[in-house]
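Course exercise 7: structure representation. Students receive a sequence record and must write out the corresponding structure in token form. The form below is the worked example handed out in class, using L-glutamate gamma-semialdehyde dehydrogenase (473 residues). Read each field label carefully; the graders check that inputs and outputs are placed in the correct fields and that the protein name is recorded exactly as given.

STUDENT ID: A-19
EXERCISE PROTEIN: L-glutamate gamma-semialdehyde dehydrogenase
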Amino acid sequence: MKTISPIDDSIVWKGSETDAADVPQIMQRADQAGRLWRRVGVERRIEIVQKYASYLTDNRDEITQLIVHEVGKLSWDAAGEVSASIAKAAVSIEAMQQRRFGAVVDQGPPRRTIRYQPLGVAVVLGPFNFPLHLPGGQVIPALLSGNAVVMKPSEQATAVGFWMANAWQAAGLPEDVFNLIIGRVEPATAAIDSPFTKGVFLTGGQAAGQAIHRQLAGRYDVLLALELGGNNPIVVMGDVEAKATSMTVSFSAFISAGQRCTCARRAYFVAGKETDDQISELVSRTESLRVGLPGDQPPAEIGPVISAEAAHSLRETYDQLIRLGCKSLVPWKDDPRRKNLVHPMILDASEVPESAMSQLVALEWFGPLLVIHRVETFDDALEAAAATPYGLSAALLGGDQNRFDRFVNEVGAGVVNWNRATTGAAGTLPFGGLGQSGNHRPAGFHAIDFCSDPVASIESATIDESDPWSMAQ
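STUDENT ANSWER:
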């Protein structure tokens, strides 16, 4: 097995895939290590997490360049991911202290308390698009909560996964508290099937989330946290200045080559005096975006998608949208240097028949492709934006507080922004989707919540000598 750089086709990592037959032993070792780890005091766990963050800080250039090389991110984008990964340590500690520290509810007597105990072994399945930050956002709170972790990085980001494992070892994490399994579906399936697994945390596509949900059918003792994709809408009011619109909408749709789960896939333009100029500016801005590789001069604004296969899949989606009735405003174009260097595209769905619209809003794609719609009113835009089985992110440009409040309440998404890109997220907020974009287990600041179980206690240092049966007399 090997990972191939999307920049130059060089081999970034080469090694053996974890044999599914070896997974039961890995899970058993993790369980044994976790039983000791949960006894380690919280202050020591915090100390190790802080050392992990320090290791990232001291080696940020090394891991930044590895992310660039293995998944093709532009340098500034990879550096931003590393910074977010470092910040995640302090944010997770704060989240635990705010949301998951034990508390005395009533001094009594008897005393009433809440404590939190770890789940056991948590299986973390990471994505390629943020190979350090997104799995780290689940690994860190899981470890803080006293769980052992078995992580399978994306098969397209194996080197970053190994780098993370080494970072935890350097931070002083005990052996087998953090474990890697390597490969595609088979080792992950074996890990999920393990009787030692008590939590499964996935960041990935809807199909993968559905498959894991089915695999765990009947195993209600395993906590499943799904952070999935979306078909995210951005609604633009007709009086918003055209240039600002073009910048925010294009950033929402095309940042990281459209390979963020929060990227806008649909843009609704509400009829108004600025609408024609808004769309014209958006098309112009999109056509002017520099597409290229890390190291290009002048620097690229849009990098490659993860592989030629991903580009091919995106082209199939583009062709499907054309067949549904979309018209091309910025057509498909790939760079002659590499098939996975795909220029951003815009399709106009304003004339797509109503009978085909349900297919459009149910599609899930991962790349720099935006579908725009012209609508007459805000009500039309809101109804169309919400008409999708997904519900990860959404944004409204323009309008007033009352209109935004209605947008939040009715659009059906877990991340809803106002006059900001759909990709805007904060480490101090929850992060997760509704509908087919998640299963009510938001990550971000709230990831700490799905890493432990609350335990309620009524406590007294002495036995109550009164007769409890007296109530029945």
